[in-house]
Amino acid sequence: MANEVFLKLEGIKKSFGGVHALRGVDLEIRKGEIHCLAGENGCGKSTLIKAISGVHDVDEGKIWIEGEQVEHLHPIDAINRGVQVIYQDFAIFPNLTVAENIALNGEVKDRTKLVSWKRIHQVAEAAMEQVGARMDPDMLLEQLPVAGKQMVAICRAIINDAKLLILDEPTTALTEPEVERLFQVIRSLKDKGIAIMIVNHKLDEIYKIADRLTILRNGSFVSTGLISEYDTQRFTRDLTGHEFESKKYVPENAGEEIFRVEHLTLPGKFEDVSFAINKGDVLGITGLLGSGRGELGEALFGVTPAQSGKIFLNGEEIRIKSIDDALNNRIGYVPEDRLTQGLFMDRSIEDNTVVSSIRNYFHGLKLNESEMEEATNRWIGELSIAAPSPKPPVRTLSGGNAQKVVIAKWLNTEPRLFILNGPTVGVDIGAKAEIHAILRGLAAQGIGIIIISDDLPELFTNCNKIVVMRQGKVGVITDNSVDNIEL
Ligand SMILES: Nc1ncnc2c1ncn2[C@@H]1O[C@H](COP(=O)(O)OP(=O)(O)O)[C@@H](O)[C@H]1O
Ligand SMILES: [Mg+2]
């Protein structure tokens, strides 16, 4: 049964005006399998889903559902053949209850019958039971967290006789335990013989859940295969079209000390933290939420300074009691939430790049526009920021390119120590590898680099020293020769 094909696509093409969203995509989804569709932003994943669900009429290509070729698939045909899609916005009704969202549609389908609220409850309860979701059927949808709303959407798909359930980027807005719960539900649906297609581009999640994987790039089919046929290197190469260094970072030669903290303490947040960074080091700080990792980073930048302990930069003791102190000592900091703290989204790339070093561009009382533009152009080149000029607002950039602008802003201040909190959260895998390469390069130039992250593979690959925080204290300091650490 696991080998029977439910859906087959061949040579699917779809353009919007001049944009070739799909340039000939093949795909095969089997009954009872979990199939992951991966590809960078804008590569055509959502468009492909809309082709499968009949929302878009395709320009070219063939579609078979359960062995039968279907021409001009309409949304209602797709639904009748068992294709159910859960889009990123779920299409649910916030002012209806859980039970109504799951079962009302089926109840009112037959307009001759009276609506039975009892039956709605029964159907909804049965669906929740089948999916393994426990929710109060009388709760209003707007009161549920995202994960709850998603469960409701899955329940509704199941009572509509889903044979193929498609989920478009279902884990983006979920916490880790919620992702686990979702995956449990998905596995139980697979066991019932339902085919599942998940759009996802996080390799660690794909390994946890998928049987097979199909990769698209720029509207084209790149590869498909069993999950066991993909390691990180092949996945990254197929996704981006580039080879990336995935070797663990080892500094060329250990240099003199750049930065050191001794017994740093902020009561209630972190206690007795000591570590040192030498020239060439990329230091990682990790730990669970609440371990103090974020607070430590903020203390080093003077946001919420440490109360006691010592800090040395290039051999000299310094005081960091405010952000101004940090800036005066040429310490740069990329916050966890770059969208609200790191960038002025409506301002240009140029404005964002020079904002922290604006004093350098005053000649008397006048700003030297051409120098600002020149500096920005230099960073656009050096960091490969995908932008036509320094002038577009940062809002128009992808996550990875926006993050590179934050990095450009700090590099333009010529930092001696550069602290980055979650530098690649929400960044595409290609841009992620580029950012890592940039940070390694900066370390080699003698800038102290600290990466704060809960992405352990990121730290193991890029940091030659890792400080593990546990409940506010340094649990252990290790190098990247191990493959796992207890958080
Ligand atoms: N309705 C549309 N009109 C015009 N262009 C579109 C439309 N939908 C998608 N596109 C374009 O098609 C390409 C693929 O988009 P999409 O399928 O949403 O990518 P993904 O889901 O992989 O991020 C993008 O360049 C996008 O801008
Ligand atoms: Mg999409």
Q: Helicity level, as a percent range?
A: 25-40%
**CATH T-level topology of the largest domain:** Rossmann fold
Total number of beta strands: 22
Instruction: Give the helix/strand class.
Output: alpha/beta
Rg over alpha carbons = 26 Å
The major sheet is characterized as: 6 strands, mixed
Which CATH architecture of the largest domain is right?
Answer: 3-Layer(aba) Sandwich
Shape descriptor = globular
Quick one: CATH class of the largest domain? Alpha Beta
Average pLDDT, rounded to a whole number, is 91
**Order of strands side by side in the largest beta sheet?**
6-7-8-3-9-10
| Low-confidence blocks of residues | none
Distance between the termini: 41 Å
Any ligands, ions or cofactors bound here, and which?
adenosine-5'-diphosphate, magnesium ion
Q: Going by CATH, what is the homologous superfamily of the largest domain?
A: P-loop containing nucleotide triphosphate hydrolases
Number of helices: 16
Amount of beta strand: 25-35%
Give your account of this protein's structure.
With 487 residues, the protein is of the alpha/beta class. It has two domains: 236 residues, 3-Layer(aba) Sandwich (Rossmann fold), CATH 3.40.50.300; 222 residues, Rossmann fold. Helices cover 33% and strands 26% of the residues. It contains 16 helices and 22 strands. The strands form five sheets. It has a six-stranded mixed sheet with strand order 6-7-8-3-9-10, sandwiched between helices. It has a six-stranded mixed sheet with strand order 16-19-20-13-21-22, with helices on both faces. Helix 3 packs across helix 4, helix 3 packs parallel to helix 5 and helix 4 packs across helix 5. The two termini are 41 Å apart. The site of magnesium ion has 3 residues, from helix 1. The site of adenosine-5'-diphosphate (ADP) has 11 residues, from strand 2 and helix 1.
